[in-house]
Design goal:
This protein is an alpha/beta fold and 342 residues long. The protein has 13 helices and ten strands. Helix 6 (156-168) links the parallel strand 6 and strand 7 (177-180). The longest helix has 27 residues, at 238-264. It holds the Pfam family NMT1. Residues 1-29 form the signal peptide.
């Protein structure tokens, strides 16, 4: 899981700069062209910040672009990679980008701090974060984590997850220690620097560890009392949603077509993704192939349209995070999500 931070000052500064820029351009402001493929209208441009470097979870976006689904909706979509995984939500809040992929837990945290962000669609519908131990460690059940040292990316959420899992499994969490390993999940477990790790994903770090000859036990938090939640969501700001709701709805329609294409054409979608990989973050084809296999069912909305989300999911997570003191201010599901998917 990527970090949950208190961003109020940073976002306030971004909001101020964005507001000043908007004031300076008021006289030349133009109405947003209507999306939906209307002939003669210039395409509506949307800038979308990824949550991380391009990888299997983003395949639907590249498919929608390559197959012309964005163009069919009269959209010109610009995808950009962040320099830090905390940046996309901040940028969306400040109007620096129109849309950003973020984490349901981060959106709850931000909204509880009064930051004006909302989710417009659930992308990965279930958690990817798992607690991992080496198979040769003898820690083959969560209760055996009692008294052990757990590596984590200094995220309070992850500490709460581990303690909940251990207690739910019948163990004693009082003696567990936590070591900040940043996002060096793989090296920490490979080098036996800690007894267990949390914050690694079953479609990424777990696959890399196993490829490198380190088989692991992976404990899914949702099997031990942690609520099911959306790992990734598509977000925007209150202001952007008010101005570009039609374009955002069109974007999500095109995204749904992109995800369907990925389901129907795994190999082609993967080849397209590999052609878009960032030079500084090269992809391993076998890892991304397995990752996509894991992700496709987790992104499937069943009899609902791709991107659908429910108030129940949001409120359940909000209530759990408040119980765990991960947020201190009340926030309601209706404030934090917009159901744009039809």
């Amino acid at each position: 899981m990527k970090p949950i931070q208190k961003w109020s000052k940073t976002v306030a500064a971004l909001l101020l700069s964005a507001g000043l820029a908007a004031c300076g351009n008021q006289s030349g402001a133009q109405p947003t062209p209507a999306p939906g493929g209307s002939e003669g209208n210039a395409p509506t441009e949307l800038t979308v910040a990824l949550d991380w470097y391009p990888n299997a979870v983003h395949s639907f976006l590249y498919a929608a672009e390559e197959q012309g689904y964005f163009k069919e909706e009269n959209l010109k979509v610009n995808l950009q990679m962040p320099s830090d995984s905390n940046d996309p939500l901040k940028m969306a809040a400040a109007g620096k980008v129109d849309l950003a992929i973020s984490y349901q837990t981060q959106v709850v945290q931000a909204r509880s701090e009064g930051i004006p962000v909302v989710s417009v669609g659930a992308l990965v519908r279930h958690p990817l974060n798992v607690i991992m131990t080496r198979q040769d460690s003898g820690i083959d059940t969560p209760q055996k984590l009692a008294g052990k040292n757990v590596g984590y990316p200094s995220v309070p959420l992850d500490e709460s997850v581990v303690r909940n899992v251990v207690k739910q499994a019948g163990g004693d969490d009082s003696g567990i220690s936590f070591t900040d390993i940043g996002f060096d999940i793989v090296p920490a477990l490979t080098g036996k620097k800690v007894d267990a790790v949390v914050g690694g994903y079953k479609n990424h770090e777990q696959l890399i560890l196993e490829k490198n000859g380190i088989p692991v036990h992976a404990f899914a938090p949702t099997d031990f009392g942690v609520p099911d939640y959306y790992e990734l969501v598509m977000t925007t700001s209150d202001d952007t949603f008010g101005k570009k709701q039609q374009a955002i709805e069109a974007f999500m329609r095109a995204a749904a077509k992109g995800q369907q294409y990925v389901k129907d054409n795994n190999e082609k979608a993967l080849d397209l993704l590999l052609s878009k990989q960032a030079n500084e973050f090269p992809l391993e084809k076998d890892i991304e192939t397995k990752s996509l296999e894991i992700l496709i069912p987790l992104m499937d909305a069943g009899d609902k349209t791709f991107g659908s989300q429910t108030t129940e999911s949001w409120q359940t997570l909000i209530d759990w995070m408040k119980k765990e003191n991960l947020i201190t201010q009340d926030v309601k599901a209706e404030e934090i999500m917009r159901e744009v998917v039809k």
